[in-house]
Amino acid sequence: YYIDQDVWDTDVARYGIDIWMTTNAITNNLKICQSNLGVKIHDVKDPAESLGPMFRQVVHTLFVLMEHHEAEWKAVKGSRTVPQFGLQKTLEPEPIQIDLDRLVKEYKTGFRHFKGLYRDIFCPECFEELKKCASKAKTKFIMPARTWVMVLYETAATFHRWTDNRTQLVNLVTPLYLGRVASFVNQTRKMTSSQAEEVVEEQARVFEDYKDYLVRAWDERPKKGTDGCF
Predict the structure, then answer these.
(1) Which of 7, 74, 155, 192 could form a disulfide with 12 if both were Cys (CB 3.0 to 4.6 A apart)?
(2) What is the pLDDT of residue 225?
């Protein structure tokens, strides 16, 4: 099935491949499982240096998939566990050096440059939280999971409404993602991998809890005279 798809000369075949393969497996009702392959060993990359291009390709691929499979994802309610295979033991990966200062600077620079556009794209509550983050010191930089969920859901809705400049939209949101990474670093710096994984799971639960918010944002436009949130 995968080899017959016309994506292998696009960004989907690069950093977008994981989300593309997973989404197509789900929407085609293929059997789904988890497989624990152990610790991924590769050239260590500083997130401040490498995550921007990864984010742009993954999110653009995801948003395009949301367009193609709107009926499927809108119909989904809740989540369930799937069978797991492979290693049962949790292994600790090697620590990596992260340039927290650069991550926070990228966020603050992006907010300073694009805050006018952010004010137009995001609801007032979301924008005000982003504004608060822009004044935080790097060691105190925490972006609430709820804010990040609203950012992505409202960006997905904007991507859906825009017919042009979609790549630029994803570029605009990249500094906010780097800020979310900085927040995760601060939140988990003293945790084990399993403890940090719980933080990821909790974020996933917030995404699930706000599914109705995504649907409203996708289907509606803010009305004049309201707070603009969905």
Answers:
(1) 7
(2) 38
